[in-house]
Amino acid sequence: MLAIIGDAAEAYRGVIPADCWHDPYMSADALRSEMAAGVVFTGCEIKGALAGVMGIQRVRNVDLIRHAYVRSASQGRGVGGLLLNDLQARTTRQTLVGTWTAATWAIGFYERHGFRLVPEMVKAALLRTYWTVSDRQIDTSVVLAAPELTDADAHRLIGGS
Ligand SMILES: CC(C)(COP(=O)(O)OP(=O)(O)OC[C@H]1O[C@@H](n2cnc3c(N)ncnc32)[C@H](O)[C@@H]1OP(=O)(O)O)[C@@H](O)C(=O)NCCC(=O)NCCS
């Protein structure tokens, strides 16, 4: 999993703000602590070798899609789509995903799977409610929702959590 994440996260190098980049992008300890915090991963193998991983995390009244990574050699062949469909089939709750504003390919990927960007006015409140992120990461991230969330929906969601 760490090899897949390290390889796939190369897509961020030079694209996301330099102060947000880490090498390795995710350490073994960070991955373990994400699992301990309830992120459940699904994986896709091609000919017996892991090609992609994607996680889902139940937080209060939503499910978050977390850590979506397909190895670079296998991107664009539908692996990410299969993983996302698999996770979406496991939830009937409001689903949210956060990604870097600069990761335009990831935003497009989620939009093609029915996610919609949340209004900018509620983005920070959602990130603070459902994720543990720095102010810097809030400034440089977007949130997408499936189904789509209006301002009022987002406030109701946060109030109900
Ligand atoms: C974002 C990511 C997880 C998507 O996974 P993926 O396996 O590349 O996604 P898919 O192949 O399902 O879909 C991506 C594209 O491949 C196309 N595709 C799907 N099946 C295909 C197939 N059989 N043959 C060719 N292309 C195909 C999709 O239509 C889509 O094309 P489009 O972007 O032109 O619409 C992956 O690209 C990745 O790891 N990127 C780097 C890290 C990252 O950005 N992660 C997101 C963190 S939130």
The average pLDDT score comes to 96
Figure out the total of helices. 7
Please state how the strands of the largest beta sheet are arranged side by side: 1-2-3-4-6-5
Q: Which CATH class is shown?
A: Alpha Beta
Percentage of β-strand residues = 25-35%
| Distinct small-molecule ligands in the complex | coenzyme A
Low-confidence stretches: none
* The CATH architecture: 3-Layer(aba) Sandwich
Task: Give the termini distance in whole angstroms.
Answer: 31 Å
Residues in helices, as a percent range: 25-40%
Shape: globular
Give, in order, the helices and strands: HHEEEHEHEHHEH
CATH superfamily caption: Gcn5-related N-acetyltransferase (GNAT)
Structural class: alpha+beta
Largest sheet: 6 strands, mixed
Number of strands: 6
Tally the structural domains. 1
Rounded to an integer in angstroms, the radius of gyration calculated over CA atoms is: 15 Å
Predict the CATH topology. Answer: Aminopeptidase
Helix and strand arrangement:
Blueprint: H1 2-8, H2 28-36, E1 40-46, E2 49-59, E3 62-70, H3 79-88, E4 94-100, H4 104-112, E5 116-117, H5 120-130, H6 135-139, E6 141-146, H7 151-159
Parallel strand pairs: 3-4
Antiparallel strand pairs: 1-2, 2-3, 4-6, 5-6
Helix pairs in contact: 5-7
Coenzyme A binds at residues 8-9, 11, 52, 68-70, 75-81, 99, 103, 106, 108-109, 112.
